[in-house]
Amino acid sequence: MLVESAPPAGSALRPATDAIAADPGADHSVARLATRAALSTRQLTRLFHTELGTTPARYVELVRIDAARGALDAGSTVSEAARIAGFGSAETLRRVFVSELGVSPKAYRDRFRTATR
Predict the structure, then answer these.
(1) 3-state SS class at 44
(2) pLDDT tens, 29-71?
(3) Are residues 94 and 52 in the same domain?
(4) Which of 3, 20, 87, 91 could bridge 82 with an S-S bond, Cβ 3.0-4.6 Å?
(5) Do residues 46 and 24 share a domain?
(6) Distance CA 30, CA 114 (A)
(7) One domain for residues 103 and 81
(8) CB 87, CB 94: distance < 8 Å
(9) Residues 74 and 109 in one domain
């Protein structure tokens, strides 16, 4: 799992991070997340840095990568995993996967299938 921490239970970020986790593929722009958390965009960004050590966009990307990994682990195709996780295309998922994990989504899926046999 790439997302290793969540904000504390009473954190003002909780509505935003819960929404991201519940539906990684949804529109999670900073403005929408700020509205969900009843914060200004500036305060939301500050809290992400302070509590999670990252930006809202990076947090969303990490949650989406985890969602794509889960979909691939469950047997989804690369295109299905990209759609489920909220990546615009299989190519975008491939680019992010290679950058973050050093392996393509297809190679990841094939390794997982081989490891679970």
Answers:
(1) helix
(2) 999 999 999 999 999 999 999 999 999 999 999 999 999 999 9
(3) no
(4) 87
(5) yes
(6) 39
(7) yes
(8) no
(9) yes
